[in-house]
Write a structure and sequence with these properties.
3-stranded mixed beta sheet; 6% strand; mainly alpha
Length: 213
């Protein structure tokens, strides 16, 4: 069995990671039209294959993974093909693209070639290191699918709805409750989940939108 205790993941501050993502957006999605066409970027621009595979989630509890050869992203077939899981699939693809951009050197040295290998890797790697590894890919995916400039525009849009509904008082006194209420409308243009949009506005320090009142 491979010894994953020596696995290392270079630490990146969020500002460093955001700079990497923003440069990526500038190169591959400069108009920042939403929703970001993550499949087009992966297949047409980067040249990776997207391979749906049966049984990843029920058999291995794996949503998707980037192949060691760095030529394909394998994703659970049943979730990928179901429209109701579209947001889930988009984030999973963006997450694996994050690994491709951020961790190429790591993947080249991993003795992993199957779903079983990935399951073993996630179990044996030191928890703290694995958390850093996955956090970086998650942050890449979130920033890519929710470009900051477009997020600001959407916050301004929903703020006008808050004004119309006369709930500014609640925004000033319980912004988290208001965010929970408006997150379905805020996440829809990006084709992501409510959980992702709530994390993004807080990570970007855009909530509460004090610059608007």
């Amino acid at each position: 069995m491979p010894d994953y205790s020596r696995f290392k993941c270079k630490w990146l501050y969020k500002e460093q990671l955001w700079e990497i993502v923003d440069e990526f957006i500038l190169q591959y999605w400069p108009d920042e039209i939403i929703p970001v066409n993550i499949e087009r970027i992966i297949e047409n621009d980067i040249g990776l294959n997207i391979i749906p595979k049966h049984g990843l989630m029920p058999g291995y509890n794996i949503k998707a993974y980037l192949t060691r050869e760095l030529d394909s992203i394998v994703i659970d077939y049943d979730y990928y093909e179901e429209d109701k899981y579209q947001n889930w699939s988009r984030f999973s693809l963006a997450h694996e693209l994050g690994h491709f951009v951020l961790h190429k050197d790591i993947y080249a040295n991993l003795p992993i070639s199957s779903s079983d290998d990935w399951k073993e890797f996630s179990k044996e790697i030191p928890e703290k290191i694995y958390s850093d590894f996955e956090w970086q890919a998650n942050e890449f995916a979130g920033r890519l699918l929710v470009p900051r400039s477009q997020l600001i525009k959407e916050i301004e849009r929903v703020y006008k709805e808050i004004e119309v509904k006369e709930i500014l008082y609640y925004l000033e006194n319980d912004p988290d409750a208001v965010l929970w209420r408006i997150s379905p409308a805020l996440c829809k243009p990006f084709c992501i989940s409510e959980d992702v949009i709530e994390k993004r506005v807080k990570r970007e320090k855009l909530w509460p939108p004090e610059w608007l009142y």
